[in-house]
Specification:
- This protein is α+β, with helices and mostly antiparallel strands.
- It has a single domain, classed as Alpha-Beta Plaits.
- Helix content is 38%, strand content 28%.
- A hairpin with a 4-residue loop joins strand 3 and strand 4.
- The chain is globular and about 45 Å long.
- The protein starts with a strand and ends with a strand.
């Protein structure tokens, strides 16, 4: 199962972490894994190329890990990042609903 978490603090998204493999199908044919990967990578790439936000993602292909924390942001970068992470969350929520048992998605509050 893929575990995906959007982190937030004070009502604002602050980071993201996804890891694991869905087990829906063999590697190369797994539409759940492909969906999570496409959403996650599109979000990171959009944060960087459209908003100029350096996310420095941690990636480990073997474990299916993609993780990043947002730096302190202001203005258009902050609002744009919130929109992109909100869209990521909506997509992951939709995938979880369509493929229960293969993806666990949640939003967690950060205490730090």
């Amino acid at each position: 199962m893929i575990s995906a978490v959007l982190y937030r603090k004070d009502g604002r998204y602050t980071g993201y972490r996804a890891s694991g493999h869905s087990g829906y199908a063999e590697a190369g044919s797994d539409i759940v894994c492909a969906g999570v990967s496409a959403l996650s990578i599109a979000c990171v790439n959009s944060l960087e190329s459209l908003l100029g936000i350096e996310t420095s993602p941690e990636v480990e292909e073997a474990s299916g890990l993609l993780s990043f924390d947002l730096p302190a942001l202001k203005g258009e970068q902050a609002s744009g990042a919130q929109l992109l992470l909100g869209a990521l969350g909506q997509g992951l929520s939709d995938l979880q609903e369509a493929y229960p048992g293969y993806l666990s998605f949640e939003i967690k509050e950060r205490r730090k």
